[in-house]
Amino acid sequence: MHYVSLIVECLRGRPAVAFWVATLGQGVLWFLVPALFYSAPPASLADLLSAGWQVRLGTETMPPLALWLSQLAFRAAGVTGVYLLAQVCVVVALWAVFKLGSAIVGARHAALAVLLMTGLTVLALPSIDFGPAVLALPLWALSLLHYWRAVGEGRRGCWLLLAVWLGLMLLTSVLGVLLVALIAVATLLDPRGRAAFRHAEPWLAILLMLFVIAPYAGWLAYHPELAQAIFVPVRPIADPGAAALRVLALIGVAHLGVVVLIALVSGWPKRRRDEPPVIEGRAAERAGRLFIYGFALAPLLVAIAFAAAGGSVSPQRLAPLVLLSGLAVVVFAGAQVRLYRERMVSFVWLALLVVPPLAVVLNLGLSPWFAVEPPGAEPAQAMGRFFAENFQRRTGAPLRHVAGERRIATLVALAAPGRPALLRLDAPQRTPWTTPAQFRATGGVVVWPTTDTAGTPPAAIKAAFPDLVAEVPRVFERPVEGRLPLLRIGWGVVRPAPPQPQSPPQPAQ
Q1: Handedness of CA 366, 367, 370, 371 (dihedral sign)
Q2: Residues 6+ apart with CB under 8 A from 25
């Protein structure tokens, strides 16, 4: 009797159930890993939370929406809320891809495309570190979904939703500029897109998008020197060809799991003679094929050209650009997808789902035994509580400011009760809400990592606080100590400045 896996039966009979089980399973796994095993947020997430300490219209490194949402999640549920927000972004992005695929190739093939995307590591592992690229995932996918509904299906009301998503995308990442440009080019090339502008909805959509980005555009108008650094992050490079090849290799590595699944499903290199199960869908029309192929390939080509011009392309920035890779493969496969080696494919798919988060947990437990400190292993809560309580006992006032070495000071500022403000000594412009003068007026704690028992502060800290008296360094225990050296933190207290005496009132003349 021929064996048919449960995944295949679910794809045939309940494609929506297959989609939700796979998507929510992935989201739950990647939420539990940092929520249960990380004792401190990763470095870039900690910097994001510190940069968003006050609600601002922008920073010198990124648009503001990711800062705003991360602060809301952090104030509601701590760093666990930010981990949850990251996985909500991934789930919404995959849902939008599923709905787009259902409209073009049917629900079965759309669910198959989402299952295939389990092999895209750039959609899973980087999502722990919430930031603009992770928030761009759902906005990119929702924009493509409603653009197809507006142009491909003629649903004119979707132009307004498209405007909202594009406006929020521009408030999130520089990738928003790329997405707006791609949609503009696609509209000019598509007769249906050009014909849509005979109605009022597309013009209203443009006005709505401009209204959404107006506050940020006004902020950029007051800071024109930052616009190029944010939207054109290009640096001079000696070998453009090598940079393009690195991005091409990064794209290949990102699709490695997809390639393995495709090879197994197709029966390569030698197909068996028995008849494999078939997933019936519907063949995409020409307009649908061009839409999927265009928005799957064009962003990657632009990323390669951008890297050759000196731009920075990281795995996280690459994640929104590969959202349609699974759909492109399914569209290319046609109306009938034959699944060879379905049992092996089922086990490989489960391995791609479970092994990466398990590898992260094993890395947290095993790396310290090789004298390598894994990310997120600092005892942030113990550090924040200790320094806040000592400042309270010594001065009688709550801790308001933290300064010192960037990573340690950021963790203390995030974990200390009352959420004190961070003063970055290496880049004071990144923390404009406080200054060294304000720090000395209200007092605060200065922290730095040290290896000696005297706790001598580094030269940069000594120059910033010449009167600082170093206290006896504090040793903190990591969750897994292994063969790592002791986590010894040097610290000192800057007491609040005494109040200035008031002059007596002058007698009336």
Answers
A1: negative
A2: 353
- Among 437, 400, 406, 403, which Cα is nearest to 419's? 400
Contact of 400 with 442, CB cutoff 8 Å? yes
Which whole-number Å values give the CA distances from 423 to 114, 211, 246, 380, 400, in the listed order? 44, 34, 36, 18, 11
- Within 13 A of 220's CA, how many CA atoms are on the CB side? 17
Q: Report H helices in 38-190.
A: 43-51, 65-105, 107-116, 132-147, 158-170, 175-189
Length of the chain: 509
Give 420-468 pLDDT, tens digit per residue: 888 888 777 777 778 888 888 888 999 999 888 888 888 888 888 888 8
Maximum alpha-carbon separation in the chain: 112
Q: Residue 470: what are its φ and ψ, rounded to 5°?
A: -75, 135
| Residues near 465 by beta carbon (within 8 Å), at least 6 away in sequence | 403, 446, 457, 492, 494
- The distance from CA 449 to its chain's CA centroid, rounded to whole angstroms, is 28
Q: What is the band of 496 on the pLDDT scale with cuts at 50, 70, 90?
A: confident
Cβ within 8 Å of residue 184, ≥6 positions away: none
Amino acid at residue number 175? L
At 494, which helix (H) or strand (E)?
strand 487-494
Q: What sign does the dihedral 302-308-309-314 (CA atoms) show?
A: positive
pTM for this entry: 0.91
Q: Where are the domains of the chain?
A: 6-364, 380-494
On the question of pLDDT at 52 being above 80, the answer is: no
- Which has more confidence, 430 or 35? 35
Structure tokens of 104?
């073009």
